[in-house]
Structures are given as structure tokens and as C-alpha cells.
Write a structure and sequence with these properties.
By secondary structure, the chain is of the alpha+beta class. It has two helices and eight strands, in the order αββββαββββ. The longest helix has 20 residues. Pfam families: 4HBT (PF03061).
């Protein structure tokens, strides 16, 4: 398989609207902002309800951002396979993220017929310093 994306940013945001609308349960906080060879980037606009005591964006919120971005990155490269599922996701929380827009850039490390391994880097929007890093494995259903 090629690492050239076959879905555009618009296609991926439309997929979230139509096939995975549950991701918008908290409102429109997730948005695909870029895709390219072997990667995709999403934006998260956290709200007060995504904070934990101490004013930091919660771990479950960062985990969700990494997971959704990995899913979108995979779909950008294999097409709208809604039943691709996470089989593993490990995350390291590196720094305290403030209540501000965050970005997650996910890169494909391996894309096989049945499994994909991806790397996710989360930072404040436009910043270089990571607040979290994750690796994810996805199971791809047979065609």
C-alpha cells in the first residue's frame, strides 16, 4: 500500500460528521487540519469540562485525541473503513497541557494488510514541545 493519502481533509471531516458523529458528543472539538504522505494532523479545542483539578487538560481527553487522530490517519491512507479498531494504545504524558487548542500529528510506522502501527505527538497548537506521546496499533478488517 502507498503512504499517499487517498482521502482529503474535507473527506475526513465529512466522515467524522456522517460515520463517526459520536466524536462530536461534546460539541465540535475535533477537526482534521492536515494530511499528507504517511501522516494526518487533528486539532482539539478543549473546554472547561475537559480539565482535571489543577487546570490541566485531562489524560482521557489527550488519550481520545491520540486515538481519534490515529484512526483518521489510518483512514486517510486506506479509505473509509469504519470498522478498523484500536487493538492497543500506549500514551506518555510529558507536560501539563493548558486549556488551549491542541494538535496531534500522527505518523504511520507500519501499514500492513491487517495491522497498522502509528506514532502520535500532541502539543499546543503551533508549538514544538510535546505534552504527550502515544503509539497505537489498529486492526484492519479484511476487505
Amino acid at each position: 500500500m502507498s503512504l499517499e493519502p487517498i482521502l482529503t481533509v474535507e473527506d475526513l471531516n465529512r466522515f467524522l460528521e456522517t460515520d463517526f458523529s459520536e466524536v462530536h458528543t461534546d460539541g465540535r472539538i475535533f477537526e482534521v487540519i492536515a494530511t499528507g504522505p504517511g501522516f494526518a494532523t487533528m486539532r482539539l479545542d478543549p473546554q472547561d469540562k475537559h480539565l482535571r483539578p489543577g487546570g490541566t487538560v485531562s489524560g482521557p481527553t489527550l488519550f481520545a485525541l491520540a486515538d481519534v487522530t490515529a484512526y483518521i490517519t489510518l483512514l486517510a491512507h486506506i479509505g473509509p473503513v469504519a470498522l478498523a479498531v484500536t487493538t492497543n494504545l500506549n500514551i506518555n504524558f510529558l507536560r501539563k497541557p493548558r486549556l488551549e487548542p491542541l494538535q496531534c500529528t500522527c505518523r504511520i510506522l507500519k501499514l500492513g494488510k491487517r495491522l497498522a502501527v502509528l506514532d502520535a505527538a500532541i502539543s499546543a497548537l503551533g508549538a514544538q514541545e510535546l505534552v504527550a506521546h502515544a503509539t497505537a496499533t489498529y486492526s484492519i478488517p479484511p476487505r
